[in-house]
Design brief:
mainly alpha, flat
Length: about 140
């Protein structure tokens, strides 16, 4: 009688390739975990487990991700140099926030457990609730 007939299912195991092979495939697949897993013939879960359990692999995959961001930023800068207005606006919205290049209002909330609202009027509480709802929608 087979294991399947006995109600036992063996977990499929995939031998982990060399770290250099995983990183090479990850790089060629533009740091896409799903595409990398398919190319390696394993599940995404397995790939995540390999990464989580191997600090060297994790560090090398992070380096691939950082390199991809560097490459993307260089392409963005090329578009900015070519006066691409969309690229210029995107850059200012993401990198120029400290200089006021934002859309709308950014609200920073800090959690506290000792907030006493008992001294606020009903009107003040209503205003606060409206602001919180507005911030939540964003």
């Amino acid at each position: 009688m087979s294991d399947l007939q006995n109600g036992h299912v063996k977990k499929a195991t995939k031998k982990k390739p060399k770290v250099s092979v995983i990183v090479d495939v990850y790089s060629k697949k533009a740091a896409n975990m799903s595409a990398t897993a398919i190319a390696l013939g394993c599940s995404r879960t397995t790939l995540y487990e390999w990464r989580q359990n191997d600090p060297k692999l994790d560090a090398m995959m992070k380096e691939v991700e950082e390199s991809l961001i560097d490459f993307t930023e260089s392409k963005l800068m090329e578009q900015i140099k070519d006066a691409n207005l969309t690229a210029i606006i995107f850059h200012l919205k993401t990198k120029g926030k400290k200089r006021g290049y934002t859309e709308g209002e950014e609200v920073e909330l800090k959690q506290t457990n000792d907030l006493d609202l008992s001294s606020l009027s009903n009107s003040e509480l209503a205003t606060m609730m409206a602001l919180l709802k507005k911030a939540k929608k964003k």
